[in-house]
Amino acid sequence: MRNLAIIFLIVQLSGCEENTTPNPPSSTSVNVTYEQIPGSKNHSPNGTWWGYNQSKIVRYGSSVYMYVIDNTNIDSNPNPNASNPSKIVIYKKEGEGAWIKGNSFNTSRPGNILMDSQGIVHLIVFEPTYTQSSENGSYGRLKHYWFPNCKTGDITTFQQETIIDNDGVSQGETVNIRVGASIGNNDMIAVSFGLRQTHQMYYKDKNGLKWLMDYAGTGLVSDYYYPYIQITDFGVSILAIQDDYPNIYQKAYYFEKKNGVWRKESIIDLSSNSLASSRPQLVENSDIYQDAAKQIHLVYQTRLNPSDAFLNTFTHAIQNTTDWINQTVTITDSKTNWIRLIEYGGEMYYLCCSRDKLYLKKGINGAFTQLDVPKVNGMYLYVTSPRGGTSSSESYIDILMLNGNSSDNHNAKNYYLRIAKACC
Fold first, then answer.
1. Which of 23, 243, 256, 287 allows an S-S link to 299, with CB 3.0 to 4.6 Å?
2. CA distance 215 to 212
3. Under-50 pLDDT residues of the chain
4. How far apart are CA 189 and CA 236, in angstroms?
5. pLDDT at residue number 423
């Protein structure tokens, strides 16, 4: 691991790229702290970058937690099954200190890390159960681990329970590997996934004795995977993407539980678009967020440029009492892949990444600031967020820039970033 590098950026926002703001913000400074962090040796099928909907970094005061998938086991067998499991490894950083490695658990895919209101960190882990050498790790059980003494620096001692079991012999798929998770202000934990054209949620109250199961949607015609889940002040919100074989992404669905009642609605359906027959991937979800005013925000991208299948247009949808207010998020980099939402001082910020650049944008009409950070190829972006349990009152934004470029493989570099909110 490199020594910590601190970069102080003085950025003239009025001189940023593609500044179309009628009244540009005045000069400001953005302080970015970054350091290289451990990463997965192998890119696929379970590099830490995978699972863009998941919570992978959380903060509680001066303590930051993340995980890394150790997949050196797939050097000889590419299938991370029960006979050949990878490891999900927890790490903790205290203040300006180095990252400390903690306990590890069997897994076949990346999972979710959550933070409760008492500063206890939780891991939601998919553990493979089938031992056949050809099984790729998609059959398994869902486990919940937590670290009761983590505030004292102990990330070795843990407690555990099984959320959804699997006998490893004949049950087949009891939980999908593309699991999303969230924790609420009341410390209720919920996990969500698509399975056989249903969308399911398992949840447990803080003092609950067992996990309860609920259907967010049934008879969906398509499979909806990679759920972004947000426990809200009124219930639960889920944003999921169609993922029919072979990787057809043309529809997005929103599921909402409010006052004990589920409803579902189509957010976008491009299956009848003229490009649909030749371009299977037209839609991708990018974030879900509940703001301080209790409104739900969604961000999704579409790929409808006839000549460029990787040119994305981003929509920011804000829920009102009867419908969604849709706004196009202007981007400064034509190859922007992901946008994450951050709220600070009553303003919504957009953290945007292309394949190797990172930008910060204040407000829907704000200018872009390109952050001076290391180059990360095929970047996947993960940010501390209230849906993962990080309090909105924390003073910092914590970011993982993970390399998702398959050609880098063993040489992939990954970074942790920290930005003081007051400098945004």
1. 287
2. 10
3. 1-28
4. 11
5. 83
pTM: predicted TM-score of the whole model, two decimal places = 0.93
Per-residue CA distances from 219 to 36, 149, 216, 238 (Å): 45, 43, 11, 17
Determine the pLDDT at residue 351. 98
Residue type, 32: V
- Mapping DSSP to helix (H, G, I), strand (E, B) and coil, where does residue 322 land? coil
Token pair recorded at residue 387: 């849906």
State the pLDDT at residue 25: 28
- CA of 402: how far to CAs of 44, 76, 371, in Å? 13, 24, 16
Q: Which amino acid is at 216?
A: A
Burial class (CB in 10 A: 0-12, 13-18, 19+), 310: exposed
Task: State pLDDT tens for residues 36-56.
Answer: 999 999 999 999 999 999 999
Rounded distance, CA 261 to CA 15, Å? 49
Assigned token pair, 14: 């009025």
Tell me if 228 sits within 8 A of 199, measured CB to CB: no
Helix (H), strand (E) at residue 397: strand 396-403
CB proximity list for 348: less than 8 A, separation 6 or greater:
291, 297, 341, 342, 363, 364
Residues 6+ apart with CB under 8 A from 411: none
> Residues 225, 176: contact at Cβ < 8 Å?
yes
